[in-house]
Design goal:
Layout: E1 29-32, E2 76-81, H1 96-105, E3 116-118, E4 124-126, E5 136-139, E6 145-150, H2 165-175, H3 180-184, H4 197-202, E7 211-215, E8 218-223, H5 233-236, E9 251-253, E10 260-262, H6 270-294, H7 304-329, H8 334-350, E11 361-367, E12 370-375, E13 392-397, H9 403-409, E14 414-418, H10 421-432, E15 438-443, E16 446-452, H11 462-469, H12 474-482, E17 486-487, H13 498-508, H14 518-525, H15 542-551, E18 569-575, H16 579-593, E19 598-604, H17 606-614, E20 624-631, H18 638-641, H19 655-665, H20 672-689, E21 692-704, E22 708-709, H21 720-723, E23 728-729
Parallel strand pairs: 2-13, 2-14, 18-19, 18-20
Antiparallel strand pairs: 1-20, 3-4, 5-6, 6-8, 7-8, 9-10, 11-12, 12-13, 14-21, 15-21, 16-20, 16-21, 17-21, 22-23
Helix pairs in contact: 6-7, 6-8, 11-14, 13-20, 19-20
Length: 731
């Protein structure tokens, strides 16, 4: 029995957010189930969700979609997607489809009014659609750096309201507030790179020093000295607005820009109190339902560990509910109540039905496995000045097994990011025959992997992890899964990354290309505590293992033990939807026997896998997991592999990792070669320490129908949600 942490389904279980001033810090990956049609989900705005901490998506769900009916029409483009959670704001559950919807609406990503955005080549550029001029950057005596932004004065939200400096300041003030996470259950930690964050986030100060308002269209953000130098400095200083008026009528930003306050003359009414209490009740109900669904009370047959774990989780939950109940009954000042009410409206209303957006499309509805969007006539355009023209977008959940069939039939217009070899072949053949309009192909910014817990169980030993890497034929995985549209990788990189393009050839010569090699695996295990027979003293003998395996593979029982009689057992958990789980099951356990390792593979739901991975017990049953990693455009592995990294789920604690990840992020922005040197050092460490085994990096294919015009550009960071501004619909 595995209990889930309190609020686990409300908090993002596959986190991927990148680091910018307006949002929170995040890791540089997205974890995905490798059977999914994964879209690397990067939250470019830094909201802690699925991409640098990350969106977790079940890559390649094969769940049937009942009652599918084509929504294609003369004024509606239909985009096929995988399952939707219905979270349309970052910080809670964040799968790839949810993120795609958000990017169409400009809630995050390059379609937004972010001050610095990602172009189609993966470069961070100033957004001239939003800014009157380039940001003014000042170096301060204390080592901090201030960015001054001057907005254009004709920007509008989708409801016609003006976009002002307050909207940019508001999101940092709200989501960095000490009550934000306890009240909403979000994983978004706010603007942690700004000066004064710690004091504001902890409640020590009610003002945020790193924020300043100059006038209605000019504001400043100051990056704390502790984050500098930072190689992606222009990205670190980016800012994105949130429609303040969508979640509050009576809360505003102070004239100084560093505090949230009630509007002048506001007094709490009975109606306001009731609305506040209703929001708290909604949150209490949601949290209670989540806890009861995911944490059933253990029965009499449960182990003492399971019972203790339940009591621990239950105590956390009870304390959280008591805090919310106390808020209902306590007296709070007007500003504080308005702040909390805005938070509750964001999580309970805006998150599931965003009423006001800045991007090319507005939210209309989410039902029957589809999201309907309509053209935002107030959209000012992307950073290139392009504006969408197609009246309606429908994002329709489809069965991934027949997605290309639906594309051929015209039931959907676009199918993005296909990864499996068979459907890719079908798509290419359909394009050559003129059945569909064409396809785009590009390298994946990520890879499939097996990831470890490195501080517990038998995988705490580096040599055990390295031995496992030599128990498999990764070339077979590439051919079986990707059908020739992929390559074996040896580091934490995607073949599309600019670093790999510049230094990949040199780097590969420095990396160990792990191959199927039982002799090498056995030699590695001889360097671990597991070098004895069952008596804990007689040296384990490879020749004897070969003889016993040849005589009776199924009945093999000659395993390695440590001096205390503990057997070398490795347990892996994989998604039952993933063909990679099957490939590993068919290959690794038998190979492992021949080197004295008992290797077991269990298949189950991807949600359960994530729970084991993110919240491991002290003595976990599983310490290996097969997933996929989508890399953030703002690549910063400090978050995953530094000993203090907030998303260090592998539990890595290694001084070389600490040194190299800090060296990468603290490289001067002008020192490109220095950054590449540090990147190479990190990759060499990763390849040796092996916190995960990269299996392959593959190509993506995006197909479109004959009536779609202008979808002739796609890259790892630029899919249909961004190219939409240049698309039209023909006959």
């Amino acid at each position: 029995m595995k209990l889930k942490r309190v609020f686990s389904s409300l908090m993002a279980l596959g986190l991927a957010s990148t680091l910018v001033a307006c949002g929170s810090g995040g890791d540089s990956t997205t974890n995905v189930d490798e059977n999914a049609n994964e879209e690397p989900s990067t939250n470019e705005e830094g909201q802690t969700e699925d991409q640098n901490e990350g969106e977790t998506t079940e890559e390649g769900s094969t769940e049937e979609v009942d009652n599918f009916e084509s929504q294609a029409s003369d004024d509606a483009l239909v985009v096929g997607i995988e399952e939707l959670n219905g979270d349309f704001y970052g910080g809670w559950t964040n799968n790839a489809s949810d993120v795609k919807v958000r990017k169409f609406m400009g809630i995050e990503g390059t379609n937004s009014y972010m001050t610095v955005v990602l172009d189609e080549n993966g470069e961070w550029v100033t957004n001239p659609t939003v800014l009157k001029e380039d940001p003014i950057v000042e170096d301060n005596e204390d080592g901090s750096k201030t960015f001054t932004y001057k907005l254009k004065e004709d920007l509008k939200w989708s409801d016609g309201e003006p976009v002002t400096a307050d909207d940019y300041l508001f999101v940092s003030l709200l989501e960095s507030h000490p009550d934000y996470i306890p009240l909403t259950g979000s994983t978004n930690t706010g603007s942690d790179s700004l000066k004064g964050y710690d004091a504001y986030y902890s409640g020590e100060s009610d003002t945020f020093e790193g924020l300043e308002k100059i006038d209605d269209y000019t504001f400043k953000m100051t990056i704390d000295a502790s984050f500098l130098p930072y190689y992606l400095e222009n990205y670190l200083g980016a800012a994105i607005p949130f429609p303040m008026h969508a979640v509050t009528e009576n809360l505003t930003v102070s004239p100084e820009g560093n505090k949230l306050v009630a509007k002048e003359g506001y007094e709490i009414t009975e109606e306001d109190k009731n609305a506040y209490i209703e929001g708290l009740d909604t949150q209490i109900q949601a949290l209670t339902e989540d806890f009861e669904e995911n944490n059933p009370e253990p029965g009499a047959e449960a182990s003492d560990e399971e019972k203790a774990s339940y009591e621990e989780y239950k105590a956390e939950f009870d304390a959280q509910i008591k805090d919310l109940e106390d808020r209902k009954n306590g007296e709070v000042d007007p500003s504080q109540q308005l702040i909390e009410e805005a938070m509750l409206r964001q999580v309970n209303e805006y998150r599931i039905a965003p009423s006001v957006v800045s991007g090319p499309y507005k939210f209309e509805s989410f039902s029957n496995n589809m999201v309907k969007l309509s053209l935002n006539e107030n959209y000012a355009g992307n950073f290139k000045g392009e504006k969408a023209s197609i009246p309606n977008i429908i994002l329709q959940t489809v069965n991934t097994k027949i997605a290309v069939d639906l594309l051929e039939n015209g039931d959907i217009d676009i199918w993005d990011n296909e990864v499996e070899g068979g459907p890719i072949d079908q798509m290419r053949e359909a394009a050559e025959a003129g059945i569909i309009g064409g396809y785009n192909t590009y390298e994946r910014n990520g890879y499939g992997n097996m990831t470890f817990l490195t501080d517990r169980g038998t995988t705490q030993y580096k040599e055990v992890r390295q031995a496992i890497a030599q128990l498999m034929d990764r070339n077979t995985f590439v051919q079986s899964y990707a059908g020739g549209y992929g390559v074996v990788t040896n580091g934490m990189y995607g073949t599309s990354q600019w670093m790999y393009k510049e230094r990949g050839a040199d780097l590969e010569a420095k990396l160990n290309n792990y191959q199927l090699n039982l002799e090498a695996a056995s030699s590695l295990l001889d360097q671990t505590p597991y070098k004895f027979e069952a008596d804990g003293s007689t040296p384990w003998d490879k020749a004897k293992a070969d003889e016993e395996f040849a005589a009776d593979p199924e009945g093999f029982d000659y395993y390695r033990y440590d001096e205390n009689g503990n057997k070398l057992v490795v347990n892996q958990y994989g998604s039952d939807e993933s063909p990679i789980t099957t490939l590993i099951s068919n290959q690794v356990p038998n190979n492992a026997k021949q080197v004295g390792m008992e290797y077991n593979v269990t298949a189950g739901s991807f949600a359960t896998l994530l729970d084991y991975y993110y919240f491991p017990d002290e003595n976990p049953e599983y310490t290996v997991f097969n997933m996929g990693t989508g890399l953030a455009e703002a690549f910063d592995p400090w978050y995953q592999y530094h000993s203090e990294g907030p998303f260090n789920y592998t539990k890595t604690n290694d001084p070389i990792a600490d040194e190299t990840t800090v060296k990468m992020r603290n490289t001067d922005p002008e020192d490109r070669e220095g950054y590449l040197d540090a990147w190479e050092e990190f990759q060499v460490w990763y390849n040796d320490y092996l916190p995960e085994i990269p299996l392959y990096s593959n190509q993506y294919h995006s197909g479109y129908t004959n009536r779609v015009k202008g979808y002739d550009l796609a890259t790892p960071v630029w899919s249909s949600e961004y190219q939409i501004n240049a698309m039209t619909l023909g006959e």
